[in-house]
Amino acid sequence: MKKLLTLLLALLMCASMAACDEETDDETTTDSTTQASTISTTTAVPKATTTKAPETTQAPDTSKDPETTTTTKVPETTKVPETTTKAPDTSKNPETTTTKKPETEPIPTVCSHDYKVTATKNATCTAKGSKTFTCFKCGESYSEEIAMIAHNYTDATCTVPKTCKACEKTEGSALGHNYSNGACTRCGELDPDAPPASEGLEFILNNDSKSYSVSGIGSCTDTDIVIPSQYNGKPVTAVGAEAFLFNDTITSVTLPYGITDIENGAFNCCTALTDVQFPDSLQTIGEYAFHFCESLESIVLPDNATNIGIGAFGECTNLVSIVLPNGITEIPNELFFGCCSLAEVTIPDSVTRIGNNAFDLCESLEHITIPDSVTEIGECAFACCYLLTDVVIPANVICVGPEAFYGCESLETIHCRADSLPADWDENWIGDECPAEVIWGE
Fold first, then answer.
1. Which end of the chain is more exposed for a tag (fewer CB within 10 A), N or C?
2. Cα distance between residue 200 and residue 215, in whole Å
3. For residue 156, how many other CB atoms are within 10 A of its CB?
4. In this predicted model, what pLDDT tens digit does every residue of 54-85 receive, in sequence order?
């Protein structure tokens, strides 16, 4: 009986162990399948799987049965070998295909344009122009319009209206001739209605070889001298030095436009000369040019005649009035010396110096206005102006020569704008035989 029980127990144990082995095999197979699936999807290496041994069934207690001498050992647990599935090596298998991610399309870049001028069409006074700009990076281009330019007109002349230099468009009308003293003041054309030029006068070719000067009366017998504007096809620009010196027969002189110079002593002592027509082109009157022309009564000088020499009109004893040019800066020495009939003269605001003896012996001069521009009054400048009664000396006058008012016996008051005697005034600036009271600071 005991042997039978022991045998049954042994059979049961064997059956139990076989069942456990089948379960272990099933689990191992399942795990391997799962791991292979994981490898194919994640390519990660799975951890090793260990199969647990089934619980040991204890043998029945035979200690109470003396006949039982056999002890059944519990079989050792079968260990399942660790299985590590490696990711397949595709580098050695050319058939293995690796799926690449699709390439991202490049993002188009925006050109930082670098434009240069590649073409230019200049604007004119009749059509617009343009400029073409092209990007040297991408080739894009654009154009800008250039506005038309203004006409560039030349000045109108006597015979031609103002004209555009580029397109020759005209505007307005020609100026027409402005005749004066036998010739046009703009272009020099002879006045067809002017009296004919005097014949027989003498001429000399100037140093420039392009113009002439009148050099003498020659064989001319005219008393009313008309100097031509041209001689031998060249312009007449001057009356030479002493050209009519001591001529006591001529009574009038007409100087044409184009004359710029009357040289020293040109009409000195022309005692019968009563009238002179000065052209606007005149610039220079030389020293003593009309000295002692005792029959001259009035003179009007053009504004361009700003260069006047010493004594130019000295001792013109019948000269009553004169108009000095604006722009003149000096009343030269002796300019009106001995002009005993001169009663009226206006000194322009441009004058800065009144020269020595400038108005000496102007016995008829009753009033004189010295402009603020004057800074210097020369020696004996107003000496022997017997009828002069009142004078105002501006504050800007920094120098007064000796005896500036010598013999001004009618001069009662001299108003000096300076507060006191300036350092550069002569101590005897008034001069003898002048009873004037000096008032400072007025």
1. N
2. 11
3. 18
4. 444 444 444 444 343 444 444 444 444 454 44
